[in-house]
Design a protein that fits this description.
mainly alpha; 8 helices; elongated
């Protein structure tokens, strides 16, 4: 058995991963709220942005946290195709969830379907990401923490979608994002608590890329995307603000108004 350490860099990786989860949740929440106030292509585009934000935020949270993961007696590498697949799964399944809410006619059913789909997708992202880990040994999982991590993921996803339908106002949205970030982080570390490692003798070269060769640059890129998109969404006018601006413009151009 190898000794695992989830905090190789102290509290830096847990705190930074939590921040990324909060940013992704906040951006996804705002985009979903914008989508529900829009129609046609605008609604679709806002929902696509929400899916990209939540999916990449959760993925970045997971792999930033994994930067602090180490196992004594072996180096760690990551299978690149599986790692990319985990990102695509996160975005795709999150997309199914937010579209279920964005276009669902029955709120309760849409929340149930969206929360279940997105939560299972988050769990799949986590365990596909773990399947990408390459060590001199094998990873196994305790069933109970795995099941608990899936339940936390489904609960967190359902809560996020509920917040998108319900929460109004900046303070409430910020609070919902902080709670969502905590839930996603809890899901990750619950899943990691399920891991047990069986070391295998031999020092053959491991395939894949190191975290600094692949995970770190991709996480930085996605983190930059999240922060830049957050700034764009924060600065772009809402549907209500656009309508008010159009009304004001009509009044200014109306010759009957003096």
């Amino acid at each position: 058995m190898g000794d695992m350490n989830h905090f190789s860099f102290g509290w830096l990786t847990p705190v930074l991963s939590y921040v990324m989860a909060c940013v992704g949740s906040a951006l996804g929440l705002r985009c979903t709220v914008r989508a529900l106030a829009a129609t046609g292509a605008a609604r679709r585009n806002w929902l696509l942005t929400a899916a990209a934000a939540i999916g990449s935020g959760i993925w970045t949270m997971h792999f930033v946290a994994m930067l602090g993961f180490s196992v004594s007696g072996t180096e760690l590498r990551y299978n690149v195709p599986l790692t990319v697949l985990s990102l695509l799964v996160a975005m795709l399944v999150t997309g199914l969830g937010v579209f279920a809410v964005g276009y669902g006619r029955h709120r309760g059913r849409a929340l149930a379907v969206g929360g279940l789909t997105t939560g299972i997708g988050v769990a799949c992202m986590h365990y596909i990401g773990m399947a990408a880990v390459r060590i001199h040994g094998s990873l196994g999982y305790a069933p109970l923490p795995v099941a608990l991590s899936v339940l936390i993921a489904v609960g967190a996803a359902t809560a996020a979608l509920w917040a998108a339908l319900t929460v109004r106002g900046g303070t409430a949205a910020a609070g919902a994002s902080l709670v969502m970030g905590l839930a996603v982080s809890s899901m990750h570390y619950t899943g990691m608590a399920a891991v047990h490692i069986r070391m295998q003798p031999g020092r053959t070269a491991l395939g894949g890329a190191t975290a600094m060769e692949f995970i770190f640059p991709l996480a930085v890129g996605l983190g930059s995307f999240l922060f830049l998109t957050s700034a764009f969404v924060a600065l772009s006018p809402t549907a209500r603000e656009r309508a008010a601006s159009a009304s004001a413009e009509e009044l200014r151009n109306d010759p009957a108004v003096v």
